[in-house]
């Protein structure tokens, strides 16, 4: 009864709508340096010991200084060059601390990452900037970084950044070049809000069950109007739209076959099921081919 209730419950599909959903998870973990370099296992019942390139619970904020004297907290996707170089430096410091008497100080996250229940902004959403010179302007979210509670809006909240260091340009006697880059807007600080399609005004949103109680939808907390998910939020590494995905014959299991319920519960253990399917004699019986299992002793 409980199993039937759980299987029939509406799925929280919005939990899987991550910024890195279109990237392979093993690639993202490698870029984060969160893959263990060595695992010490078989420790006589004790849990295995992992040696990490960078401890998974280590967190170092990425701060950037600008020519105007400002220092802004950055949010970068882990495969971007700046963030990747920062992780390589942390890996170098961690290895150096292991080989010497220095102490590696782990950094802790001051502001926790927002849970999937409270995250309601995705790529392609219409939002309004609430701070800075672009306050009150509306734009489209280009990408989000859930780990930093940050979103980026196309063409808004920009900062002029030098593309090449000033010393290098002076060496070759070239004029300094700079470009505008979008800066992160942090959702937990209220720096950006969703646009309610009912009246085209800013609002907060939450996840609620629809009228049929079949799926969760985004609803404006101010008007109660449903805010549909943009198509860009469903983009993955393999396809831009689930409807346009082309199955690879011989490698992909067809959807109609994968959705078939083929499991038949039985009141037997896994070993007993194998014995029944392959016609093996039951363990524990005395015959010429299958003797009793010997006793096992632990010291």
TrEMBL record:
<protein>
    <recommendedName>
        <fullName>Large ribosomal subunit protein uL24m</fullName>
    </recommendedName>
</protein>
<dbReference type="Pfam" id="PF00467">
    <property type="entry name" value="KOW"/>
</dbReference>
<dbReference type="InterPro" id="IPR041988">
    <property type="entry name" value="Ribosomal_uL24_KOW"/>
</dbReference>
<dbReference type="InterPro" id="IPR003256">
    <property type="entry name" value="Ribosomal_uL24"/>
</dbReference>
<keyword id="KW-0687">Ribonucleoprotein</keyword>
<feature type="domain" description="KOW">
    <location>
        <begin position="120"/>
        <end position="147"/>
    </location>
</feature>
<dbReference type="GO" id="GO:0003723">
    <property type="term" value="F:RNA binding"/>
</dbReference>
<dbReference type="InterPro" id="IPR008991">
    <property type="entry name" value="Translation_prot_SH3-like_sf"/>
</dbReference>
<dbReference type="InterPro" id="IPR014722">
    <property type="entry name" value="Rib_uL2_dom2"/>
</dbReference>
<dbReference type="GO" id="GO:1990904">
    <property type="term" value="C:ribonucleoprotein complex"/>
</dbReference>
<keyword id="KW-0689">Ribosomal protein</keyword>
<dbReference type="GO" id="GO:0006412">
    <property type="term" value="P:translation"/>
</dbReference>
<dbReference type="GO" id="GO:0003735">
    <property type="term" value="F:structural constituent of ribosome"/>
</dbReference>
<comment type="similarity">
    <text>Belongs to the universal ribosomal protein uL24 family.</text>
</comment>
<dbReference type="GO" id="GO:0005840">
    <property type="term" value="C:ribosome"/>
</dbReference>
<dbReference type="InterPro" id="IPR005825">
    <property type="entry name" value="Ribosomal_uL24_CS"/>
</dbReference>
<dbReference type="InterPro" id="IPR005824">
    <property type="entry name" value="KOW"/>
</dbReference>
